[in-house]
Design a protein that fits this description.
The complex is a heterodimer of chains A (307) and B (290). Chain A is mostly helical and 307 residues long. Chain A has 13 helices and no strands. In chain A, helix 5 (78-113) packs antiparallel against helix 6 (118-131), helix 7 crosses helix 10 and helix 8 (167-201) packs across helix 10. The two termini of chain A are 18 Å apart. In chain B, 46% of the residues are buried. The chains are: A mainly alpha (307), B mainly alpha (290). Chains A and B meet through helix 1, helix 6, helix 7, helix 8 and helix 10 of A and helix 1, helix 4, helix 5, helix 8 and helix 10 of B.
Chain lengths: 307, 290
């Protein structure tokens, strides 16, 4: 029910974007030298000659048929533009999440074992500082030191190669973006997991496990991490929107042709239907992923659905 | 966002109130934020080079006596551009959060105090709005709503911040609204207005102030991202974000160009976040889940 509401709001919002343009949308989108044929196609896509609430339904009907319109710069369909860009965002995000979890889980466990100890304080200060470094600065620092000063090839701007062409070069070219995103996620996951683990470790079943003489490793993973992983999944779910956005910024600097770079190019070229299509896709994607995570969390922790 | 835990809270409750001093670093941060705001307000009166003045005799100069932090590829003074650039960040940061608080805070307090259907509907709407990533929503609106201006940027980010402020203030109010002294005031026949203003407001003030500062920092990051993508105020007006954007293409040749505005931005953010975090832990013993 909530999902339907959210999707409805997103669709109305994305639809209405076109009407924020100053002047007649057809003229602004196509430019003054547009051919009557192009105008006719656009009118059909947007239903421009109808009243605004009907325009919404015309537009929605097209969207539901997978027809997001035609890019008036490249003359290809918007959906094909999105289809070729989206996997790159997916790859960057998946790589970054693997890195973030791989670092955040062990460090959070280490911190939680001795709160306020030296390691915990050091990690606390580090994560706090990283929190204040936006991704666009982090990626610049990274490019500066790794691709320019150290001269590691394949990591600088416009070094992107598709996965199908050469997967090793592809991973090289996406390593800095993934690392940048991973840093932001690490801070979130570390902080959430640490505080949740500290709370979990106060519970009686941990004392029970300790008194049974179980090893520290087993207590940490089996008894403490399991209940705390719910908080971690929740954090990951909330994080996904931010990750996509951070990915946009990073792609822009390195000219990686994912959704973000495509979006900014489209904005600069006034290719508004591409912009609209990407905004719609990303918003729906974020909502879908959030709901998917909620579903997973319900499975991992059945208490939540009973509440 | 919050690194508080139940264990921390339990420990802090046992301690005498306000035992934790604010510390030297807190005051350094306050000084730094104050200095930045002072610079932003009085930039015209300070003995600074004109930030738009191009000097082709001193292009891409490194840091030195003439130009404290060097010059850019048009010979413009970087230090002066950073001081003037802080105006955009600070104006947008404060302006947007004022909009967010102006609308989100009263709604959040009312919802938590009244509960019932009003709260349920409003909270659902806010959660729907929260589902949009703020950067993507603002990019979307600003790319269509042309021509861009500082005011539009403030309004768009301000509206985007309403649900966040709402959530924080509502959660904070909820934790106070059931306390005995609120019930006592109600029993004594205090008006709703009196309870909201005299009982609830002072008690959520520390959290409100703390989140205000963290909110300003968040908005500044967002504005920086927009400027970095070329979607904020138009050049040649300097802002930290668009200075970083302009330096992007000449990273290898002149890295000072990207370094100094980045440093200015990060130091300002660290100071804001630290002050916000410390105020919360100083005044408050209960956890507000952000």
């Amino acid at each position: 029910m909530l999902l339907v509401g959210i999707v409805f709001v997103i669709s109305v919002g994305s639809f209405y974007l076109i009407h924020l343009l100053p002047g007649n949308p057809a003229t602004v989108i196509l430019g003054f030298g547009a051919t009557p044929e192009a105008k006719a196609i656009l009118y059909k896509q947007l239903g421009l000659n109808k009243p605004i609430y009907l325009q919404y339904f015309v537009w929605l009907g097209n969207i539901l048929h997978g027809n997001l319109g035609i890019s008036f710069i490249s003359q290809t369909t918007v959906s094909s533009v999105i289809r070729s860009a989206l996997p790159i965002d997916g790859e960057i995000i998946i790589l970054s999440q693997i890195m973030a979890f791989a670092v955040a889980i062990p460090t959070a466990m280490r911190s939680a074992r001795k709160p306020d100890g030296i390691v915990d304080r050091f990690l606390g200060a580090t994560s706090f500082t990283l929190l204040s470094i936006p991704p666009y600065i982090l990626i610049i620092v990274m490019v500066l030191f790794i691709s320019i000063k150290l001269g590691v090839s394949g990591t600088g701007p416009s070094a992107y190669v598709s996965f199908g062409t050469d997967w090793i070069t592809n991973l090289e070219s996406l390593s800095l973006p993934a690392f940048t995103l991973a840093t932001g996620s690490f801070v979130v996951y570390y902080r959430v997991l640490r505080s949740d683990l500290i709370a979990t470790l106060q519970e009686e079943f941990i004392t029970m496990a300790r008194s049974k003489g179980l090893s520290q490793r087993r207590i940490m993973w089996r008894h403490a991490f399991r209940p705390s992983s719910v908080a971690l999944l929740g954090a990951a779910s909330v994080n996904i929107g931010g990750l996509l956005a951070a990915g946009f910024v990073v792609q822009y600097l390195l000219q990686i042709p994912g959704l973000g770079y495509t979006l900014i190019l489209a904005i600069n070229e006034s290719d508004f239907l591409v912009v609209q299509g990407i905004v719609l896709t990303v918003s729906i994607l974020v909502v879908a992923i959030n709901f998917f995570f909620d579903f997973i969390i319900n499975i991992v922790d059945p208490r939540i659905s009973r509440e | 966002m919050s690194n508080f835990s139940l264990a921390d809270a339990a420990i802090m409750v046992e301690r005498p109130e306000k035992s934790r001093p604010l510390g030297l670093f807190f005051w350094i941060c306050v000084f730094w934020v104050g200095l930045n705001i002072f610079g932003a307000i009085f930039a015209n009166l300070l003995p600074l080079a004109n930030p738009l003045n191009e000097n082709f005799n001193a292009i891409n100069a490194g840091p030195g006596l003439h130009h404290l932090l060097g010059t850019d590829d048009l010979g413009r003074d970087i230090f002066s551009r950073i001081v003037y650039g802080s105006r955009v960040s600070i104006t947008v940061g404060l302006g947007a959060i004022f909009i967010g608080y102006g609308i989100g805070a009263p709604l959040g307090m009312l919802a938590a105090y009244r509960r019932g259907r009003f709260d349920a509907i409003l909270t659902t709407i806010m959660y729907v709005l929260l589902a949009f990533p703020a950067l993507i929503a603002t990019i979307a609106v600003l790319s269509f709503w042309t021509p861009r201006s500082l005011l539009k940027i403030i309004v768009v980010i301000g509206i985007a911040s309403i649900p966040l402020v709402y959530r924080v203030i509502r959660t904070a109010t909820l934790s106070v609204a059931t306390k005995d002294y609120v019930v006592a005031a109600k029993v004594q026949g205090a008006t709703d207005r009196r309870i909201l203003m005299k009982e609830l407001l002072p008690n959520i003030a520390p959290i409100a102030v703390s989140f205000f500062l963290i909110g300003v920092a968040t908005v500044i990051i967002l504005e920086g991202a927009l400027a970095f993508l070329g979607l904020s105020v138009n050049p040649p007006t300097p802002s930290w974000g668009n200075m970083i954007n302009e330096a992007r293409t000449v990273l290898a040749q002149n890295f000072w160009l990207a370094f100094f505005p980045s440093l200015a931005l990060c130091l300002f953010l660290i100071a804001l976040n630290f002050i916000g975090d410390r105020i919360r832990s100083h005044f408050d013993v209960t956890e507000v889940k952000l």
